[in-house]
Amino acid sequence: MTQTNPSPAEARDLPKAPARRRWVSVVLTLVVLASGMILGAGSVLLVVRHRALMRIHRPQEAAAMDTARIQKALGLNDEQARKVQAILLARQAAIYGSVQKEFDRLEDDVAGVLDEQQRQLWHEKFGWFRKTWIPRRSPPPE
Fold this sequence. Notes:
Layout: H1 8-13, H2 22-57, H3 59-74, H4 78-112, H5 116-133
Helix pairs in contact: 2-3, 3-4, 4-5
């Protein structure tokens, strides 16, 4: 079974192949790429937020994780690790105390320039922010 080439007259009568639509492939590739970037960035933001809130709401757990990481990286013995963890907790308590004072001042200063209705709304919104990001708590045990 041999295939012969069509004559020039027969070739003119054959239907033409559809034009290649390379731009469709390029657009679809860009859409898939952009979707992946958006999903990846959103996932990273959720993980970062979760870890930041964990550090704020559970400082002892965060200090223990940091101590384990430092112990592994530097080869600390158990006594050194306990001392490092105590230092981390003390520094965290000091930082937390100064952050609380600054946010108290911020809340009061902004409330001072608002009228009564705005002040009430300000305290509600700032209270939500503070409850979520900087909850009031007693300092960690020493």
